[in-house]
Amino acid sequence: MKTFNPSSSAAFDLHHFSGIVEESGKNLETRVSGGGGGGATYQGTGGTAPISITSKTVIHDQLFLTNSEGKERSFQLQDFNIACRKGNEVTVFWGIKKGKSKGSYLAVKNHTTEQLFFDENEVSKMFLNLWLQGLIVLGGVMAIFVISYLGYIIGPGLFFLAWRRWQTAKKEVADFKQSIRELPFD
């Protein structure tokens, strides 16, 4: 277990489980949503609103791994799109923030094929508190429009703080990914 201390989020412990794939499965789920299409007519004239339909495909991977001590664990992962089959050696990584009992899957490493898969959204969440980031930007906007002259100093300062936090988080994410890549494949 390794601890990471992001500068813009709570520290988290990186856990992992390595083993041989005993069984793997993949399912695709398509979520469709739509809206619009309403309208009105009056005395033979009128119009309708455009219809919009969107879909998103979610990939579900299920892995059963057995480690060198014979312990078996199952993993249900979303949106990794892992390429693996029975007999491959795989490591699953997840992060648990300090003070929490559960965490998110962050990466899967297939040692046999030397491939690495990340859940980009979950990795980003571990390194940057997006709610706080949004509040800082909102504070910058409010400062410029609500506080007259002083707001023109405070607002850009808050925007700079948000930008700096974002840049720092991007570097920390890149360093995190590199540390996962550098783990030996054997």
Largest sheet: 7 strands, antiparallel
Average residue-wise pLDDT: 88
What is the CA-based Rg, rounded? Answer: 23 Å
Q: What is the percent of helical residues?
A: 25-40%
Number of strands: 9
Structural class: alpha+beta
Q: Terminal Cα separation, in Å?
A: 18 Å
Annotation field: number of helices: 3
Transmembrane segments: 130-163
Keywords: Membrane, Transmembrane, Transmembrane helix
Describe the protein's topology.
Layout: E1 2-4, E2 12-36, E3 39-42, E4 45-48, E5 51-66, E6 72-78, E7 89-97, E8 104-110, E9 115-118, H1 120-127, H2 130-146, H3 151-181
Helix pairs in contact: 2-3
Transmembrane segments: 130-163
Keywords: Membrane, Transmembrane, Transmembrane helix
Short key terms for the protein model shown above:
186 residues, 9 strands, 3 helices, alpha+beta
Report on the structure:
Keywords: Membrane, Transmembrane, Transmembrane helix. The chain crosses the membrane at residues 130-163. By secondary structure, the protein is an alpha+beta fold. The chain contains three helices and nine strands; from the N terminus they run E-E-E-E-E-E-E-E-E-H-H-H. Strands 1, 2, 5, 6, 7, 8 and 9 form a seven-stranded antiparallel sheet that branches. Strand 1 (2-4) and strand 2 form a beta hairpin. The mean pLDDT is 88.
